[in-house]
Fold each of these.
Amino acid sequence: MLGFGNRLALVIVTGWLMMPSPALALGDSGADGQFERRDSFHFILYQDVDLDESSGLRGSRHFEQQILQELEGAYDRLDELLNLRPERKINVYVWDAGIFAERFQGLFRFPAAGFYGGAIHVRGDERVTPALIRVLHHELVHAAFDAEAPRLELPAWMNEGIAEWFEARAVGKRTLSGRERSILAKAARQGALFSLDDLSARSFGGFAPDAAAMAYLQSYGFIDYLVHAHGERRLNQFWSAVVRSRSLERASRRAYRQDLGDLGKAYLRSLGAG
Ligand SMILES: [Zn+2]
């Protein structure tokens, strides 16, 4: 799951522009590159999952309505938790799983369930599963950051860390699981944690699968640490200050009264690293 503004995004955006315009290719059959379009208040949904029926509980219409309902719920939560309210409608593509893999998997070194590249793209399913709901929440954070500060280059630990934290919060998970904690503690003991600098790449897209899993977890852990040590409101202030000042350092001093480097060190110490 990626939110990136690096050259991968250009590849994807270009690829997307070369596709037949979804708006002109509205069909009813699914999984043929012809997208069904459906609008809600804040989103335009295009979906191409191969569903047998269009009506009924297992039909495409119900599926689309459910996805839009989840997205609108996520929009409200984003406002509550991060004070973000993208004004322009966000385009969301729900791809047939096979087509998604064929078209996009080569762009990442690890299996991706979705990404943001000017629009939200997710690998679809035949039902709205908890996994799909998480991915939608995750990618919405990237979309909202992009809408709020289009030319701001965020480090991946912040972009991905907040996206991971938000998707976890969305399903009621308020902190790292015991298993996640023990993975981080073990890496800390082995000296295998990334430095904040390592995690400041624009995206983790080029990381090998194990390294990417660790980078996402460590980034989520950092945001979780900030929230538990200093409160959700400060995270909100931090993010707003980043947008206003365009400086992570200044934002960190403003929201946390500490240098970013010191916050990073305190987090590593909390994991048992020296
Ligand atoms: Zn992401």
Note: Residues 1-3, 138, 142, 160, 163 surround zinc ion (CB under 6 Å).
Amino acid sequence: MADYEVPKLNGDGYVEIPGVVRDTMKGSGPFIAKPEFQEALGFPADFGKDENDNWELVPDWKNRALEKLDDLRGRYRSLQVYLDICVKCGACTDKCHYFIGTQDPKNMPVARQDLLRKVYRRYFTFAGKYFPRLVGAVDLTEEVVDDWYNYYHQCSQCRRCSVFCPYGIDTAEISMAAREILDHIGRGSKYNNEIIGKVFKIGNNLGLPGLALKDTLEGLEEDVEDETGFKVRFPLDEVGADVLLITPSADFFAEPHVDGLIGYAKVFHEAGISWTLSSHASEGANFGMFVGSYENMHSISLRIREAAEQLKVKRIVFGECGHAWRVGYSFLNTLAGPFDFLDQNYPVPQHMLDVTWGLIQDGKLELNPAENDDMVLTFHDSCNVARGSRIGDYPGSQFDIPRNVIKAVCNHFYDMPQDTIHDATYCCGGGGGLLTDDLMELRVKGAQPRMEALKYVTGQEGVTHMATICAICKSQFTKVIPYYGFSMDQIVSVHQLVGNALVMKREVSVQARPDEPEGRE
Ligand code: SF4
Ligand code: SF4
């Protein structure tokens, strides 16, 4: 199946820390973005290919890289601090799924950080300028740039290592800074930068135009009516709806994502909430975060604000997704706020799971968990939710609420081992802008710790399915899980489970009321 060795699972619930094998993943970076994709994102595009058909760096790349590093450490105090304070205690070394899966020591978080830190020391510290060998400072060379490109694209920015670092050093932030520098010297990742370009041009990562989206949603309405007999609506661009739903575009057609979208629609229908999607902001995932670009993250976020204003909604709700929610929860208000024109009785924005859990607690949804009795569930906490945000209004709500909802709609649920869930959760192996086929080996190997934990509960508790909320986790797992002897359909969306269990009673969906939007002038 693969032309590399897929890690073996032992099934005993322990993630074995492997020995070190140097350079196993050297030169395994993703495809490089062409100048036209760089230009669309505001990055320099004055570079081409050499006589061997390899992409060159931009002219004067060294100065430009150092200027960018200087700019970023000035802009982000945290980056400067992280570059200065590592004491090389080693607590993070065995915490990264990519190190565990690949054995490459440069995938140890501290070694990954050091790729940038050594250059920072050489050019921006007294000791590094005058006694470089004493402090491990190195010159910025093309070889260093190659290592940056390869190994900063072997970090899914999951932040697991930061949980175990006594100083809280966030490797994800260093990795974002490195990618931003790389983008400024002609080393952008094709996958990420093409996707961001599509959002600017069309509105979503997939490049799905408004008409195609409308057709897709109409098809879903027909499917749900055939299945349930109820006319559940999937509205698009409806002015005056109460809720604007921002969801990753994978929800429109990928499996099992679309089953989650069907679940949201059923919840809104039964709860009598009018809602709409937007063709202008038809993407929840903000890849500007992955490439570390404040400017791109800002532009993508503004589309959500524009859609909310145009559609005169009262609330913004994010669908199931991890990376979308990280930007939504942590940054949306700063990037595109204030959202004082929305109903302040609701969180801005609010996660769909928070909406559903609130409705369940208020007795607004009738549920029959027996509808999911053909499954024994476990839950994968997505990194960006687990370590970057909450879902409700108290610490740990991001762990409780998904489990509360699953337990309300399923009779059989078991957690994976404690050191692999909640804030110690392992990344799916495809996060942080690495969900591309050119990184398949990394993705398969990086999934190993999660697969190990899944295998354990499969053996111990008879778990048959793993629910998750992040669009990237869903896509990554369905792709890599067969390498470990599981099948794609063992991955499910949480709202897929909700949709299965929901007892449908309401004959007609509540419609948007464009002429009399409540609560506004
Ligand atoms: S942020 Fe995640 S992927 Fe990156 S080094 Fe830390 S543990 Fe590894
Ligand atoms: S745990 Fe923190 S301080 Fe220790 S080596 Fe890793 S990054 Fe440095």
Note: Residues 14 and 85 are 31 Å apart (CA to CA).
Amino acid sequence: MIFNQFFDPASSTFTYLISSGEGREALIIDPVIEKTQEYILYLKKLDLKLVKVIDTHIHADHISGMKELNKQTNCAKIMGEKSPSEVVSVRVKDNEKIKIESIELISMYTPGHTDCSYSFFMKDRIFTGDTLLINGTGRTDFQNGDPIDQYHSLFNRILKLPEETFVYPAHDYKGNKVSTIGDERKNNPRLKVNSPDQYAELMNNLNLDNPKMMDIAVPANIKGKIL
Ligand SMILES: [Fe+2]
């Protein structure tokens, strides 16, 4: 299997490329528009055919490369059914399979960071978007975010996975690249709460500034943008 994690330093975003092997089909999760050429060169180098692109949610801190990648490769544009995106071609429900050749991802509706946040589980790993971060969780104070929903997405869905499951988030700001469910259960300070209300109290008092790109990125990602 080919598995590559790209990083956009401007927005600290991780983008993932998955394929069963050279010359085969490929899938990309959470592409950043400015990085499109890097993805295309990587695809060409390994003779991969990009067939599917997934955004875990409408991002507020960068512009998605989904529409541009579709323009260049004609790949399918996939998001969860709750997405307000006007450009997606496939909307997945909770617990739906997304396949490329022998590789299978399963969608999990994990609202809380936004009401359109999905995670994607693949055999031994989960792509958590901004729902579960390494030693953190995605903020819940805009885009219809809700800390109580996020508590349930975390404790009743994602953290129920086996503890050796790898966690691949959409961002990291401190140089981490991957974690596991077990490590997050043990170390993540946001998960040291005893109830949904306690989690909401914590999340409602973070007092974070809005992302710099928010007013540009959210509308651009709903409409879709090309280079
Ligand atoms: Fe986000």
Note: Helices lie at 36-45, 66-73, 147-155, 181-187, 196-203, 214-223.
Amino acid sequence: MKAWTLGSPGDGLRLEEVTDPAVRSGGAVLRMLAVQVPAYTRMLTTGGRGGMATPTVLGIGGIGRVEAVADDVHTVRLGEIALCTGFLGTGRVAEPEEVLLGWTGIGGRGTSSAATDAMRRVWRNGTFAERALVPASTLVALPGAEQYPDLARLAFLPWLSVAAGAVERSALAPGDRVVVTGASGQLGGATVLLALARGAGRIAAVGRNARNLERLAALDPRVRVVGSVGSRAADGAAILQALDAEADVVIDALGPAPTADLSMAGFDVLRTDGTMVLLGGVRQVLPIPYDELMHRCITLRGSWMASNETAYAVWRQVEAGLLDLSALDVTIPGLDDPDAVLAQAEVTNGLGFVSLLP
Ligand SMILES: NC(=O)c1ccc[n+]([C@@H]2O[C@H](COP(=O)([O-])OP(=O)(O)OC[C@H]3O[C@@H](n4cnc5c(N)ncnc54)[C@H](OP(=O)(O)O)[C@@H]3O)[C@@H](O)[C@H]2O)c1
């Protein structure tokens, strides 16, 4: 089969003929139908996003048709369409550990262990390929997906699931006033879609890219966009004005910003008893005063990846039309030219993404 392989970080991604993966105990083989190529994929191939197991077929998650299922696997059935999350846990309840397959990323404190090394050694099949052998626990059957008119759009399901994980952890209730910082990004845009589907009353979508913010504003009158000016006080004031009140929920989906100011503007506008969820890639220390967190009874929590149940719930929302993927701007390349596809992916942002059709 054809696949994109990475020899080691910095080697560049290569289109190669590799042996078709054979099904084995604990796994299933998917014929990959649509796989998102995240904007930062090129950087990841250079080692700029942390270590990963190489050599490997690269690629995390995606949509595929089940071509072979091991005798001991019952999460998916032969012939159906399934989502692969690429998110593998040890299953050990005490001291859980998680890794991303075909990608960088280790859960918890981010440190590798004998267990995470072994998981990445045994399951070394990324999804930028015609076929992928993946462990059963990373698969979510999508009953009804055969009828979905545009499978390429479903490649965004893993990303939407990550955003949905944060929305669930925020306990967003219908009618809530919500702030999404970094809303003009891919994860932030996904978060806005999920918050709308969950019945948010008003959403302050905060970012810098005016075009992406405009697209969010066009989604629904509940979305009020706020162009960040890079000042904690001014951004906070603009958010309060957009919401017309303090926020029940703040979801921070910012990329690696040089200061914590915009994240802290989100913190500043939370109401007493509000919840702030950190979802993005900010690498700053948040200066949160103990007494404020305490007196305002704020819940502050992180959110990494999402459960299979969350991913399935996202599919149900798509199927029901609550989550309208027609808002996405999709570029649909094939496997032939990895370099060109990474270049296409690099310029995607907001509600735009690259859906590789292997
Ligand atoms: N928690 C998880 O499970 C999980 C999973 C995947 C990714 N992530 C993390 O999520 C982060 C966001 O991902 P993404 O793909 O959405 O990235 P992205 O498309 O680059 O979006 C980043 C967002 O941050 C904003 N931003 C960046 N620097 C800023 C600054 N200095 N001031 C104000 N805004 C700034 C961008 O604004 P403009 O575009 O408007 O300039 C954009 O809205 C990544 O860093 C990634 O590490 C987390």
Note: The chain has a mean pLDDT of 97.
